[in-house]
Design brief:
The complex is a heterodimer of chains A (259) and B (320). Chain A is an alpha/beta fold and 259 residues long. Chain A has helices at residues 43-49, 80-86, 102-113, 119-132, 136-139, 152-165, 182-195, 208-214, 238-243, 248-254, and strands at 5-14, 17-27, 32-36, 60-68, 71-72, 87-90, 170-174, 200-204, 217-223, 230-237. In chain A, a hairpin with a 2-residue loop joins strand 4 and strand 5 (71-72). Chain A is globular. In chain B, strand 1 (67-68) and strand 2 (76-77) form a beta hairpin. The chains are: A alpha/beta (259), B mainly alpha (320). Chains A and B meet through helix 2, helix 3 and helix 6 of A and helix 6 and helix 7 of B.
Chain lengths: 259, 320
């Protein structure tokens, strides 16, 4: 199910402004890849190009090549809607649909592709997705209550369940724990460990310990200078990145000496 | 409402400033109270003026459909047909206007290029600025004659639906024509309210839908419409309030008769507001008082609709 992502020569723009310059990287399937870097260095922007969410912002576009196994994500005939059902996303702020129940939230995406899903199949999918997100035991007695009644950490796991219910091959996570307390963060990190059995996971994080804990490979982004576009500085095995980075910039960032 | 009386080394506030404060507070409070006084005054006026005819009425005011009020003794009149016509015309107008208004609002917010959207929004707002007598002229001079063949077709093919049973009016001056004109008149307010609430849908909800592979329409169905529902309902209720009270356009279009009929395509029905406007110049005896009693009913209906709208909007914003 998990797929490899191959990016080559990707430039990302907001209108005339070049936000991220010339990124090439390979993201391995069944692994966790972390993007780190200071605020505004373009790592979230780059993440959003991987499922073509970047272009939802008016005037925003990307140039270059992104391959999802052999699917050319930016190919001329490729429907972004199809890409997004292959590449799921979890956002910084948990965003369950406020008017929907927990059950309906989980099933919402799956219903888009399969409108005539039988009741029992839907029930199975909801249970499976919630179990997969380590949330089933906490919500199984109130599946038809609003999702907005859950705690922040539970809401974020609900969003992960909602994303996996669509059966994507890749999960993108944009600072999924930055609004959560340490206990909830731990729950999500445990979940990420389990999910990488089945998915390709890419996570943007500001928390270096988190990157070190959850990821197999780490990519470090930085700005070329004030007002200049962000670039990929270095990418490698997480262990190596945090102990023996090749570039001075990476070492400065990781050890807390910026610039 | 300033109470800065703690002893301090700094010089006390100047006297002129305090007077200004007091004057402003008084003006604001007075304006607030004035609105209550006006509302109570209108209600009291309606009740007092309506009372002579209501107490002398020999028919049941709420259930009777006749209108024999222009007499010096024993008037017999009821508001049933008028209230029915008012509610029917307004309800049909609402049914016609709401889907169109929601469509326009969605187009403006999520589909149209930015420049077209602002022009379109401005044009819709302009609809609200057209005087209702102009709408009346348009309805009777342009719309009604052109609707006659349409009505004929409707009775022919959909006549089995009670609403469209024939024979269709040959003048086109029917409750449906009036409803269409009312629908155009209430379109701006429903569009404006819907547009504002659709613009406020959090980006997070919209992106959540798109990120799991929703098309634009599916995104609207999943994220925008549920969020915007209370705003749309609120706008529709405000539009309904306007449709209920609209006088001039309806008075010009309808050829009135006091019946209770669901036949949208036949002449008949009348609304309270139009009835008052048409009857008042010729009212004698108990006539004026009886018309004021009808006005009291309209006042009550409109008040109830507006309070309902407030309640729905307030409840919706608490949920979101």
């Amino acid at each position: 199910m998990a797929k490899r992502i191959d990016v080559s020569g990707l430039h990302v723009y907001y209108g005339d402004f070049l936000a991220v310059e010339d990124v090439s990287m390979t993201i391995e399937p069944r692994s966790v890849t972390a993007f780190i870097g200071s605020s505004g260095c373009g790592k979230s922007t780059f993440l959003r190009t991987l499922n073509r969410m970047h272009e939802v912002t008016p005037g925003a576009y990307a140039r270059g090549k992104v391959l999802l196994d052999d699917l050319d994500v930016y190919g001329p005939d490729v429907d972004p809607v199809l890409v997004r059902s292959e590449v799921g996303m979890v956002f910084q702020r948990a965003n369950p649909f406020p008017t929907m129940s927990i059950y309906d939230n989980v099933i919402a995406g799956a219903r888009l592709n399969n409108k005539r899903m039988s009741r029992s199949r839907a029930d199975d999918l909801v249970e499976e997705s919630l179990r997969g997100a380590n949330l089933w035991e906490e919500v199984k007695d109130r599946l038809h209550k609003p999702g907005s009644g859950l705690s922040g950490g539970q809401q974020q796991r609900l969003c992960i369940a909602r994303a996996t219910a669509v059966r994507p091959s890749v999960l993108l996570m944009d600072e999924p724990c930055s609004a959560l307390d340490p206990i909830s963060t731990l729950a999500i990190e445990d979940l990420i460990h389990q999910l990488k059995e089945d998915y390709t996971i890419v996570i943007v994080t500001h928390n270096m310990q988190q990157a070190a804990r959850v990821s197999d490979r780490t990519a470090f982004f930085n700005l070329a200078g004030p007002g200049k576009p962000g670039r990929l500085i270095e990418m490698g095995e997480t262990n190596q990145m945090f102990t023996r980075p090749e570039k001075k910039e990476t070492e400065n960032y990781i050890t807390g000496r910026f610039g | 409402m300033t109470t800065t009386d703690a002893p301090q080394a700094a010089p006390p506030p100047t006297a002129s400033r305090r007077i200004g404060d007091a004057v402003f507070a008084g003006l604001a409070r007075g304006s607030g109270l004035l609105i209550l006084v006006i509302l109570a005054g209108v209600a009291a006026f309606l009740v007092i003026q309506a009372w002579p005819s209501l107490s002398a009425n020999t028919a049941n005011f709420l259930t009777s459909t006749e209108w024999e009020a222009n007499v010096r003794e024993a008037p017999a009149f009821g508001v049933a047909a008028l209230a029915f016509g008012t509610l029917l015309a307004a309800a049909v107008a609402l049914l016609l206007a709401t889907p169109v208004a929601v469509g326009i609002a969605l187009f403006i917010v999520y589909y149209a290029p930015r420049r077209l959207a602002s022009v379109l929004g401005y044009l819709v707002d302009l609809l609200a600025a057209i005087p209702s007598v102009v709408y009346g002229l348009w309805g009777i001079g342009f719309l009604a004659p052109r609707l006659v063949p349409v009505f004929g077709g409707l009775t022919e093919h959909l006549g089995w639906i009670p609403l469209f049973s024939g024979p269709a009016s040959t003048s086109g001056r029917t409750i449906l024509t009036a409803s269409i004109v009312l629908a155009v008149m209430i379109l701006p307010i429903i569009t404006a309210m819907s547009r504002d609430v659709f613009k406020q849908v959090p980006q997070g909800h919209r992106e959540a839908a798109l990120a799991m592979g929703a098309t634009r329409w599916e995104m609207i169905r999943l994220a925008v419409l549920p969020f915007g529902r209370s705003g749309v309902v609120g706008g529709a209720m405000l539009g309904l309030g306007r449709a209920l009270g609209e006088t001039m356009a309806v008075a010009m279009i309808l050829s009135p008769s006091l019946v209770i009929s669901f036949d949208l395509l036949q002449s008949g029905n009348q609304t309270i507001a139009a009835h008052i406007a048409l009857q008042y110049p010729e009212a004698t005896g108990y006539g004026v008082s009886a018309l004021i009693a009808a006005g009291l009913v309209l006042f009550a209906i409109t008040l109830a609709v507006n309070m309902g709208a407030r309640y729905i909007v307030a409840r919706g914003s608490k949920e979101a």
